[in-house]
């Protein structure tokens, strides 16, 4: 490809999309994949985020530049100190306490000025003005920016349509649900009018609501901004949840486009391993170890980017993994980040399991690990990206949700898709509702051992689960290939914007 300056005339004819992700790994990662997918369809893409987040994805930025993909990464100054957040805390996982999550989210509109300043600069390479803004649903302030630019705003939704639709139902019937839950002796009720038996308890209901008025106000702002959006992109595929795609589209009255699993964006293993952040382990050694393991024998244990467990819980989990006798990779962020009491236990544990288990202290190349044929099971917190990455790779999961959408995601894996086994966690946690060491989700070592056995073996039931997971993997891949449902979904987004541009 020619240099950008040489391409001046062709660029002016191309569509230019502006992407604004939420600064949290679980939201940034799929939007980076989306940016690259759009760029491979001849779209000019501006990806706007803050300096810390850009430096974290430097390998991806470099790779995009080397492959001449038309993506520009734009730095937006985020004045965290002005709102009392610690210096450099430009991503949710960098916040020292979950109590700072709401102040962080409330500070997001501060990105508006730097973004608008960037948009006012005349483009040295002849890129036309953006004709579409795709923003994370939490970046509600972008609604005004799109309005000023007179361009459509599409929202990018992290979770599945199953979650989005159930969440709508719970919202709509909140008072009745709460009354029914109080009255029912089992403390759970069936969500109405669904094709699957989705039994919710206080767990699911209170995980998506907060009684804190500040949180409620924030959620309401998001809801209003969502209503004004022109369409919704969902990181999922129709074949996974056809009924829910249809109903969610009907309920919102907007186009809802499937564009996932975005993690299937094709790239070299080193780049895939650097999704989100640079790996905390020598990838060569890790994959050499995986190459030596029996196909489908390894358990991956990872709780995403934000969840942190207490030392007491880590010890139980470790003992359970050890007793399971299975090879494992265990991602432990807690030990890398803070000196938790008892962290010497970790060093002893590592010595005991040497050769059979690998502990990654910090960031793991998760999507790449899940794609290795040695990995046969995944103990997950049910973050949507993690779940979908497992689906895309045909890996069955043990579901251990902690907060928000994760409880409903668990129901999708277990009750609808039937590719998951439950770890049985009762307590929901709302961001900001936790205090230090009280954040204990009590799963004993015996439970961990039993669950791992059920996940990795599990008799006929286990075989059927694995069979279903492989079928879904094949459907996911077909969806992303040229002509597949998600491939078409992205094309429909482009066509929609192109048509809108003609009208404007
Ligand atoms: N992830 C990773 N390495 C880690 C932890 C997480 O690559 O050590 C990635 C994971 O593959 C997923 C994202 O970070 O793409 C986490 O998103 P998810 O929705 O699963 O959970 P969240 O972090 O939002 O709770």
From TrEMBL:
Pfam families: Glyco_transf_N, UDPGT. The keyword RNA-binding does not apply. Keywords: Transferase. One of its GO terms (molecular function) is UDP-glucosyltransferase activity. It comes from the Eukaryota. Signal peptide: none annotated. Residues 18-262 form the Glycosyltransferase N-terminal domain. InterPro entries: Glyco_transf_N (IPR058980), UDP_glucos_trans (IPR002213). Belongs to the UDP-glycosyltransferase family. This is UDP-glycosyltransferase 73E1-like isoform X1. It comes from Cymbidium sinense. The lineage of its organism: Eukaryota, Viridiplantae, Streptophyta, Embryophyta, Tracheophyta.
């Amino acid at each position: 490809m020619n240099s950008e300056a040489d391409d001046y005339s062709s660029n002016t004819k191309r569509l230019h999309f502006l992407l604004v992700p939420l600064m949290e790994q679980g939201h940034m990662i799929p939007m980076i994949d989306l940016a690259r997918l759009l760029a491979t369809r001849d779209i000019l893409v501006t990806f706007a985020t803050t300096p810390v987040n850009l430096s974290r994805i430097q390998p991806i930025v470099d790779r995009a530049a080397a492959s001449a993909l038309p993506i520009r990464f734009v730095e937006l100054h985020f004045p965290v100190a002005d709102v009392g957040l610690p210096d450099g805390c430009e991503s949710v996982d960098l916040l020292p306490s979950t109590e700072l999550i709401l102040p962080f989210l409330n500070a997001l509109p501060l990105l508006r000025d730097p973004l608008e300043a960037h948009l006012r600069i005349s483009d040295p390479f002849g890129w036309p003005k953006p004709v579409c803004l795709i923003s994370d649903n939490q970046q509600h302030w972008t609604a005004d920016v799109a309005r000023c630019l007179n361009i459509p705003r599409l929202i990018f939704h992290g979770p599945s349509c199953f979650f989005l639709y159930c969440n709508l139902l719970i919202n709509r019937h909140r008072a009745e649900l709460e009354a029914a839950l109080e009255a029912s002796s089992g403390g759970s009720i069936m969500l109405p009018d669904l094709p699957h038996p989705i039994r919710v308890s206080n767990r699911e209901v209170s995980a998506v609501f907060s009684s804190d008025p500040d949180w409620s106000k924030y959620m309401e702002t998001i809801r209003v901004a969502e209503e004004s959006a022109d369409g919704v992109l969902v990181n999922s595929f129709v074949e996974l949840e056809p009924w829910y795609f249809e109903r969610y589209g009907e309920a919102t009255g907007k186009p809802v486009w499937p564009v996932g699993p975005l993690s299937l964006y094709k790239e070299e293993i080193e780049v895939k391993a650097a999704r989100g952040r640079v790996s905390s382990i020598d990838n060569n050694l890790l994959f050499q170890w995986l190459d030596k393991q029996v196909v489908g024998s390894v358990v991956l244990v990872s709780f995403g980017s934000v969840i942190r467990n207490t030392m007491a819980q880590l010890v139980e989990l470790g003992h359970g993994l050890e007793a399971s006798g299975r090879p494992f990779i265990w991602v432990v962020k807690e030990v890398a980040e803070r000196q938790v009491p008892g962290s010497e236990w970790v060093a002893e544990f590592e010595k005991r399991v040497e050769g059979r288990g690998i502990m990654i202290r910090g960031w793991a190349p998760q999507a790449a690990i899940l794609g290795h044929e040695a990995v046969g099971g995944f103990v997950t917190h049910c973050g949507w990206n993690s779940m979908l990455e497992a689906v895309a790779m045909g890996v069955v999961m043990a579901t251990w949700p902690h907060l928000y959408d994760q409880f409903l995601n668990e129901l999708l894996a277990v009750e609808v898709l039937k590719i998951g086994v439950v770890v049985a966690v009762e307590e929901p946690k709302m961001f900001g509702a936790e205090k230090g060491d009280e954040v204990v989700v009590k799963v004993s070592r015996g439970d961990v051992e039993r669950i791992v056995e059920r996940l990795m073996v599990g008799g006929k039931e286990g075989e059927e689960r694995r069979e279903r997971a492989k079928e879904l993997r094949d459907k996911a891949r077909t969806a992303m290939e040229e002509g597949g449902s998600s491939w078409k979904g992205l094309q429909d987004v482009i066509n929609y914007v192109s048509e809108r541009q003609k009208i404007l």
